[in-house]
């Protein structure tokens, strides 16, 4: 007796999940620095950190990261 496997394609979608919020972060990319703002719920908080960091150090190049949460749902 042989066994048989049946695969079925099921469509899913992925979308931003508002209940998860968004996190904003800034990272100083000046060689040897490595300072970072940490995650904030408000974009202005990460931007303010970068402005203060520039004022204290003169470093003027940052990597900004915006992280959201996504939910996968099965299409009906």
Produce a short descriptive summary.
With 76 residues, the protein is α+β, with helices and mostly antiparallel strands. The chain is 20% helix and 32% strand. The strands form 2 sheets. It has a two-stranded antiparallel sheet. Strands 2-3 form a two-stranded antiparallel sheet.
Give descriptors for this structure.
76 residues; alpha+beta; two-stranded antiparallel sheet; two-stranded antiparallel ribbon; 1 helix; 20% helix; DUF7848; DUF7848 domain-containing protein
Task: Tell me what you see in this structure.
The chain is of the alpha+beta class. Helices cover 20% and strands 32% of the residues. Strands 1-4 form a two-stranded antiparallel sheet. It comes from Streptomyces diastaticus subsp. diastaticus.
Q: Let me know the average pLDDT.
A: 94
Say how many strands there are: 4
Which word captures the global form? elongated
The span between the termini is: 36 Å
Structurally, the number of domains stands at 1
What is the H-and-E element order?
EEHEE
Percent in helix: 10-25%
Classify the beta-strand content into a percent band: 25-35%
Report the structural category.
alpha+beta
Total DSSP helices: 1
What is the strand arrangement across the widest sheet? 1-4
Query: Which regions contain 5 or more consecutive residues with pLDDT less than 50?
Result: none
Cα-based radius of gyration, to the nearest Å: 21 Å
Give the biggest sheet: 2 strands, antiparallel
